[in-house]
Amino acid sequence: MSLAALRRTGSTASRLQRTASSSLQRGLLIAPQPHLQYTPRHSTPAPSPPQLPFGSSAHHAKFHTSTQAASAHAPMALSDLSTRKKVTINTLRKMYEKGEKITMITAHDFPSGLLADQAGIDVVLVGDSLAMVGLGMEDTNQISLDDMLHHSRAVARGVRSAFLVADLPMGSYELSHQQALQSSIALVQKGRATSVKIEGGKEIAPTISAITTMGIPVLAHIGLTPQRQGSLGGFVVQSKTAAAASKLLSDALAVQDAGAWGVVLEAVPADVARLVTEALDIPTIGIGAGEGTSGQVLVQIDMLGNFPAGRFLPKFVKKYADVFEVSRAAINEYKDEVKAGKYPAVEHTYPVKEQEVVAFKQIVEQRKTEIEASKQRRRSYE
């Protein structure tokens, strides 16, 4: 091989090594690709081992020992990876132009994100509503940006196809455009969101413009803005007069002009929401705004009924299931079976050879003095 060829070989190998190192630093698991593997001239390529699909049962068996597989702390498998195409901002625009309704639902952790994604939801929102439904806080204003980053990362691990949006919480964007940009960048870079949602109309439009100018998609939110419910007199319906509806329209036009890809309309009369939707050239996502909007969003925990009886639900929420009662019944049954000695049954236990049991019994007998001494020491602490 000539000196020039040797240099090319070394250069290519070095480049591939740098690429692999960079991928590992980014936390990416990249399977070797045949067309990227360098084969020196005049050599016979080695046969490539069969590639196991990431998340498949075969892949899991290869990389997890039997001890790990038996652990109660095994990671939730993603064997049923989504096969639908990734939803992008262009996808949402095409849906809007075709008149196809956009579906959005909230998620606050990995399981809820995975569930929404596998159900085929178009947009998954890591909403600051998780403060109340996921963390037990009194209102959304108590959640911090760090909280949102933590939960957004968790949701992102379960979302493979849906468009992921994360809320900018109160206190993370109001002080300056720089603060809003820093918070938005954090939600995209650290929270793994694709877009951010921000509450406010005309007064927040310059902030939306600053964020979108930097290439971060923004979903606006007007009407009832929960972060400002204190100044609105609580969680009350908005835009019930012509003058108030006109202000809502002004807010909608302002966020559209600022570059928002869509706008949430919350708790406004259906007729008002429909007219505002018709006046815009971006999708409207309704929550308590009737069926005339471009799409709908609900809080996942609300629509699944994952809460105790007696909790207040807004009029617009449809309870599609009773997950809380089903879960409570299951946990209650588990408790009763444990108390009665019915669980675990034989099928829930791991076998061992009889001769090993006999040998262990002998060991226990031989260590009887040591065992009794340990019991006495334990009782001395009482």
TrEMBL record:
<dbReference type="InterPro" id="IPR003700">
    <property type="entry name" value="Pantoate_hydroxy_MeTrfase"/>
</dbReference>
<dbReference type="GO" id="GO:0003864">
    <property type="term" value="F:3-methyl-2-oxobutanoate hydroxymethyltransferase activity"/>
</dbReference>
<dbReference type="GO" id="GO:0005739">
    <property type="term" value="C:mitochondrion"/>
</dbReference>
<dbReference type="GO" id="GO:0015940">
    <property type="term" value="P:pantothenate biosynthetic process"/>
</dbReference>
<feature type="region of interest" description="Disordered">
    <location>
        <begin position="1"/>
        <end position="69"/>
    </location>
</feature>
<comment type="function">
    <text>Catalyzes the reversible reaction in which hydroxymethyl group from 5,10-methylenetetrahydrofolate is transferred onto alpha-ketoisovalerate to form ketopantoate.</text>
</comment>
<keyword id="KW-0566">Pantothenate biosynthesis</keyword>
<protein>
    <recommendedName>
        <fullName>3-methyl-2-oxobutanoate hydroxymethyltransferase</fullName>
        <ecNumber>2.1.2.11</ecNumber>
    </recommendedName>
</protein>
<feature type="compositionally biased region" description="Polar residues">
    <location>
        <begin position="9"/>
        <end position="25"/>
    </location>
</feature>
<comment type="similarity">
    <text>Belongs to the PanB family.</text>
</comment>
<keyword id="KW-0808">Transferase</keyword>
<dbReference type="Pfam" id="PF02548">
    <property type="entry name" value="Pantoate_transf"/>
</dbReference>
<dbReference type="InterPro" id="IPR015813">
    <property type="entry name" value="Pyrv/PenolPyrv_kinase-like_dom"/>
</dbReference>
<comment type="pathway">
    <text>Cofactor biosynthesis; (R)-pantothenate biosynthesis; (R)-pantoate from 3-methyl-2-oxobutanoate: step 1/2.</text>
</comment>
<dbReference type="GO" id="GO:0000287">
    <property type="term" value="F:magnesium ion binding"/>
</dbReference>
<dbReference type="InterPro" id="IPR040442">
    <property type="entry name" value="Pyrv_kinase-like_dom_sf"/>
</dbReference>
